[in-house]
Amino acid sequence: MGTRLSAMARCASGGAVGKALLVSSPALVPLAMTVTPASAAVIAGKCSTGQNFSPETAGINPNLYAQVCVEKDSSGVFRAKAYLSWGAAGQNDFHNIDLQLRLEKSDVVKKTATCDFTSRMNGTVNSSGYCYTPWMSLPAGGVTGDATLVYDSRDVSGEKAWELHGSPTL
Questions:
Q1: Average pLDDT value for the chain
Q2: CB of 71 within 8 A of CB of 130?
């Protein structure tokens, strides 16, 4: 089962992986918290080459750039990580835009996370963010990160998916 947190919450956590605090603006009252056990320092990682994409929208088509990685820390646990950046966005062009991230072992999904970039991409012309799966203990070898960007632009064409190139094996 996956973890769904807003990209804003992931980034607002100061890069603290696995920790997110969603707060209501007026009262600053905590609404939800997800905590993953602390992990040691990342000691190894492999990433896909950068990928560019420009989805069709009713307005100016934004320029997206994505990269998918797999990381291992000094205690031997793994996570998948994805980086997404955009330019020429901020036009309120999307009903929804989610990054669905998967940590896989020999092409079998082990952990997932879905990060919702809708509000950030609709409200910010140029920005970026990360998405992470929870850490997981796996036997070494054959571990990869993979991702799909699922989006529904306001051009009334319905939901579409951009399959990203997965990371090399770690």
A1: 80
A2: no
